[in-house]
Amino acid sequence: MAYIIIGLGYFGNIIKSKLEKKFNTKIVTVDPCNTSANYKTIDEIHFTSGKWFVTSPANTHHDILIDLFNKGIKDIWVEKPICPTLHETLDIFAKKPDDVFLYCDFTWLQHNSIKTLGENKDIKHIEMKWLNDGSMIPRDVNIVSDLAIHPISILTFLLMKSLDRIKNIDIIYATNTSVLINGISHNNTSFNIEVSNSSLKKYRNISLYCKDKVYRWSSLNEFFIENIGTIEKTDAIEENIKHFLNRNNIGYPLDIARSLEIVNIKFNDLCTC
């Protein structure tokens, strides 16, 4: 079976390396800007079988997915987000043929520590800090589009595991390098998320305030949770690949897309840059 990677950039190369190491399979690459790719366009590929990975920039996802639908491709992985706007995301789901399996990789939802935190059913408050050194943020992408989807996807996952939904999201501070998000769920679970680029450190942290305990996870020791202990180590990207290959869908893309759309709209309204 062939594995086809569309977009041979940073993440496309990660997927390629993991497929090469874990699976004995043919890998075909497509990228109009990378001279090492096998093809420049999807039209040059004259077969429809195999597993197709869309790892190109988010603003190309809609057109590529429509092309793959029209081509008759049945198994499609798309790097998060499915599309950069909720309108485009809804359009993709409306046009997706019933027999097409579409998988979006919200990487952190397959991290064992995040899945363990999701087992808590009595969450009262969630705090997250998601900071990056800025080296992987393209100049033409704002901090919300590139980074905020990670904590928002985790937040959506934690709330839905607790049989809850987001009721309201507010942004109380926003620039082109930082955003502070507050909100509340339908059963009054409150949350705040700080997302920013920092040239000083790269640090992610989540704290869950529950009925009688606080559970803290940090990527400084990402397989240990305070009040739980050491978590079995797994590779979240490899776990996502396994889910895709086995056609196991996590089922949260529309909820995450709706939340991200609200944040993006408010971010663009408030950003002074």
How would you concisely characterize the structure shown here?
The protein is α/β, with parallel strands linked by helices. Helices cover 32% and strands 26% of the residues.
Q: Return residue spans where pLDDT drops below 50 for at least 5 consecutive residues.
A: none
CATH architecture of the largest domain: 2-Layer Sandwich
Order of neighbouring strands in the sheet with most strands = 7-8-9-6-10-11
Task: Please give the domain count.
Answer: 2
Helical residue percent? 25-40%
Return the average pLDDT rounded to an integer: 91
Task: Quote the distance from N terminus to C terminus.
Answer: 48 Å
Question: If you compute it from the alpha carbons, what radius of gyration comes out, rounded to the nearest whole angstrom?
Answer: 19 Å
Report the structural category: alpha/beta
The main sheet comes to: 6 strands, mixed
- CATH homologous superfamily annotation of the largest domain: Dihydrodipicolinate Reductase, domain 2
Strand content: 25-35%
Number of strands: 13
Number of helices: 7
What is the string of helix and strand elements?
EHEEHEHEHEHEEEEEEEHH
Shape label: globular
User: Which CATH top level class of the largest domain fits?
Assistant: Alpha Beta
What is the CATH topology classification name of the largest domain? Dihydrodipicolinate Reductase, domain 2
